[in-house]
Amino acid sequence: QVQLVESGGGLVQAGGSLRLSCAASGRTFIGIGWFRQAPGKDREFVAAIGYSGARTYYADSVKGRFTISRDNAKNTVYLQITTLKPEDTAVYYCAGTSTLPVDRFGRYENWGQGTQVTVSS
């Protein structure tokens, strides 16, 4: 059974850091993406990573603060978040794609349940 499970969210102060994990099972995805959704807003793309980890993609709003990485031996993708801002508050979801492309235009069909990130000012 294909499953993705996010973890690592929590409540942090502005300027702090978090490391989110996305553990996949049942399939090794070509690409894994992170998305987020704040209350009253549409879901937005955050970051994505290709199979080897060599190709990464970031939304302009998080570039320089967020780092995506992949450990294929563990079938896990990470999102290292630094310099958190209140506007980063959202539910963060990871999703997998088995087709190209793997960037923000990718066809992400398998989704996790999400992990809450709350940033206080």
Distance between the termini: 40 Å
| pLDDT averaged over residues | 96
Low-confidence stretches: none
Look at the helices and sheets and give the structural class.
mainly beta
- Describe the biggest sheet? 7 strands, mixed
Order of helices and strands: EEEEEEEEEEE
Number of distinct beta strands: 11
CA radius of gyration: 13 Å
Helical content class: under 10%
What overall form do the CA principal axes indicate? Answer: globular
Helix segment tally: 0
Strand content: over 45%
Structure, briefly:
With 121 residues, the chain is mainly β. It contains no helices and eleven strands.
Description:
With 121 residues, the chain is an all-beta fold. Helices cover 0% and strands 50% of the residues. The chain has no helices and eleven strands. A hairpin with a 6-residue loop joins β5 and β6. The protein is globular and about 40 Å long.
Topology (elements, then pairings):
Elements lengths: L2 E5 L2 E4 L4 E8 L5 E7 L6 E6 L6 E3 L7 E6 L4 E6 L8 E8 L12 E2 L3 E6 L1
Parallel strand pairs: 2-11
Antiparallel strand pairs: 1-3, 3-8, 4-5, 4-9, 5-6, 7-8, 9-10, 9-11
